[in-house]
What we know:
The chain is of the alpha/beta class. The protein has two domains: 3-129, 3-Layer(aba) Sandwich (Rossmann fold), CATH 3.40.50.2300; 136-231, Winged helix-like DNA-binding domain superfamily/Winged helix DNA-binding domain (Arc Repressor Mutant, subunit A, Orthogonal Bundle), CATH 1.10.10.10.
Amino acid sequence: MGIATAAAEKSRVLVVDDEPQITRVLRTVLTSQGYQVRTATEGEAALSSFTEWRPELVITDLYMPHMDGIELCRRIRTMSNVPIIVLSVKGEERSKVEALDCGADDYVTKPFGIDELLARVRAALRRSGGETEIASFDAGDFRVDLEGRRVIARGNEIRLTPKEFDLFVYMARHPNRVITHRTLLEAVWGEASQEQPEYLRVFMGQLRKKLEPDPSNPRYLVTEPWVGYRFNPNG
């Protein structure tokens, strides 16, 4: 058994899709890699399975009967920061952005390559459960708790999704430096993210809403026009 498969053995993945062929293929592929897999064909059943089984990753389609993937993301985010990958078809840009706004961390466009999906699964699980070298650190007006995956801003705990947390931590570890769009995309979403720059715009907007006293006039997460962003730890 390889190292990657052994590491995956304890990882529980919930797959939600109303297309039997998709759930069948994903169950087979993920199980072959050592993941424990459960499937659901719609949102309500997925929520029941989520509450009972507590998966470490959710992969969900966007369009399903009764409860769609966007509402499922929203409901899961009220009780957990588990990584969520959404599946969509080409041309659903608005829906993908809405899903990211509602708490999804990543998306894969159908038809997708198995190798790409597995890479995104590994990356999501690594970011959500990987070991950290230190338990916490201070960054100006913020305290970052890496073990608890929490951010304290001016004495108040700020609720962040896993991807929001990863993005903020990367910037907090590189204060007062201009970080390019490409660098941030690769650091948080991986090398394949260069074709999906809307990730950065959406998540930076979400972070500003949560961390900035005046999101329309940010002083911590500052835009460097045409280049990237700069984190000013003391505003």
